[in-house]
């Protein structure tokens, strides 16, 4: 299985960083011009972007990627998977939150990825790693 990992320290308490990264709309800022739209709410009325929620990603009206939140442990972990994509065999995203101290949080973002086409996975993971590093740097300035 191919995988990549990005680690980033945020100068904010774990609760604040988790709240930021648990909202689908946050990724519009982090990964612009890619747009993220929630298309299905979680059953949890207090957290519509929680477990079972589905978001679509893309540009303009074309948003071919769908991700479903599968695990959400407040202030600790978020997991999601890509659904309904014939080009992707396996995609699992894991975002882990670890308090370094009361005003600093280490975020570890891991993606496992396997495309259906050979030799594509490493290229996709390299692009994702670059985008996540840039996106996290942008977000770290907002907290």
From TrEMBL:
<dbReference type="InterPro" id="IPR023393">
    <property type="entry name" value="START-like_dom_sf"/>
</dbReference>
<dbReference type="InterPro" id="IPR019587">
    <property type="entry name" value="Polyketide_cyclase/dehydratase"/>
</dbReference>
<protein>
    <recommendedName>
        <fullName>MxaD family protein</fullName>
    </recommendedName>
</protein>
<dbReference type="Pfam" id="PF10604">
    <property type="entry name" value="Polyketide_cyc2"/>
</dbReference>
């Amino acid at each position: 299985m191919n995988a990549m990992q990005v680690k980033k320290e945020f100068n904010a308490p774990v609760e604040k960083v988790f709240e930021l990264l648990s909202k689908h709309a946050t990724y519009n800022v982090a990964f612009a011009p890619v747009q993220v739209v929630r298309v299905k709410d979680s059953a949890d009325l207090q957290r519509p972007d929680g477990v079972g929620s589905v978001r679509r990603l893309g540009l303009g009206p074309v948003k071919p990627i769908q991700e479903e939140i599968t695990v959400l442990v407040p202030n600790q972990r978020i997991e999601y998977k890509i659904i309904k994509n014939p080009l992707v065999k396996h995609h699992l995203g894991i975002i882990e939150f670890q308090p370094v101290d009361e005003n600093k949080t280490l975020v570890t973002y891991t993606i496992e990825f396997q495309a259906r086409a050979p030799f594509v996975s490493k290229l996709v993971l390299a692009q994702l790693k670059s985008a996540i590093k840039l996106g996290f740097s942008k977000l770290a300035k907002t907290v």
